[in-house]
Design a protein that fits this description.
Structural class: alpha+beta
Strand content: 35-45%
Order of helices and strands: HHHEEEEEEEEE
Largest sheet: 6 strands, antiparallel
Number of strands: 9
Helix content: 25-40%
Number of helices: 3
Strand order of the largest sheet: 1-2-3-8-5-6
């Protein structure tokens, strides 16, 4: 668990201060700063997958969805993990959300996106949905802001 926090620290630092107002531009900037195929994300992926398989990353469960808090405050973000194969609860992102999605099985998609970075703008609302397989997602919430509906 400590190793994951240490691996996430430079990643969260690289994401801090990023404007999420234009999600498409923000996603491109996230990919530029922290490439999904780069060594930093690979290290996070390895630790995330190990934590999901061992159960310590997502110790809570609601139906088919497993989840857990990784950090309450990391460079201005709360960081949580969710292990999904089905839709989750509808929610709103007051300050936006940056998701780091890893496929664990099948051809999983998160809200239609393949594994990688996904960005939602401020005030966006969605029902987070994984389809076509299994995915573990780390979500970075600026200021820890989220509103479940």
């Amino acid at each position: 668990q400590q190793a994951l926090l240490e691996a996430l620290d430079p990643l969260a630092k690289a994401l801090s201060g990023l404007s999420l107002t234009d999600p498409v531009a923000a996603r491109a900037e996230v990919e530029r700063r922290t490439p999904f195929s780069g060594p930093l994300v690979k290290a996070v992926r390895d630790l995330t997958e190990a934590g999901a398989k061992a159960g310590w990353l997502t110790p809570k469960q609601n139906g088919a969805i497993k989840f857990g808090r990784v950090s309450k405050a990391l460079h201005g973000f709360s960081v949580d993990a969710v292990h999904m194969t089905t839709p989750g609860p509808q929610h709103k992102h007051p300050n936006g959300e940056i998701d780091l999605c890893f496929t664990l099985g099948g051809d999983a998609r998160f809200d239609g996106h393949p594994q990688g970075w996904v960005v939602f703008g401020p005030q966006s609302v969605h029902v987070p949905t994984v389809s076509g397989g299994e995915m573990v997602i780390l979500y970075f919430l600026p200021g820890g802001a989220i509103e479940f509906m």
